[in-house]
Amino acid sequence: MTSICDERGQELLYAGMPVTEVLKQNVGIGGVVSLLWFQRCLPPTYCKFLEMSLMLTADHGPAVSGAHNTIVCARAGKDLVSSLVSGLLTIGDRFGGALDGAARMFSEAYDAGLHPQEFVNNTRKKGKLIMGIGHRVKSINNPDMRVKLIKEFVLENFPAKPLVEYALEVEKITTSKKPNLILNVDGIIASAFVDMLRNSGSFTREEAQEYIEIGAINSLFILGRSIGFIGHYMDQRRLKQGLYRHPWDDISYVLPEQYN
Questions:
Q1: Taking the model in full, what pTM does it have?
Q2: Of residues 15, 46, 6, the one with CA closest to residue 208
Q3: Are the CB atoms for 71 and 244 separated by under 8 Å?
């Protein structure tokens, strides 16, 4: 069974919309994503949010694990698909996969009626990290412009954004403890995504919850970052970079002592 696309007729249909209408109505990439992922064309504000998220997560330099893997594979002479997949396979809880975790943590705390301070205290007692909070380099004094741009857009354009507002209250508490415990790009996109699902008027509460539970929110990071990984592959091939070998002085050798 399939419910998102039909290619059998005279014209290709995306969730029932002919591709000529997709172009004529200028729904953009956000509209195509909403048709193929959610079987409906979301209002323009939310399509714009999807597009912004894809643009702002497209790349974050060559040092992150996904880009690094892609670069190493490209320099080993592997093809585009192999190099891209090697980068995508690093995405998980430690790299890029925090969107789903942040969406679940913030929405569950909000739904349970926990005050932001209670949420922070309870998470600390359990010895867990708050997904979507914290950055190695950025801080309250050195903000991440990606977060700033999405936050400003959501606060200005979303008619209802209770989870984003909740997450920002959590950030006030965490940054009072440590300045780098900011709401990061995963946290702002995840909370805004939940607000979109719950408050756009396009989904029932049950549908919104199902998308949260099936891990759909990390899709934005995966799709967005694929753009950058492909760019890194092309860059390495264009620069004709040779086989990568990690420098010895960056490796700590901790072998057991030799036998006499």
A1: 0.92
A2: 46
A3: yes
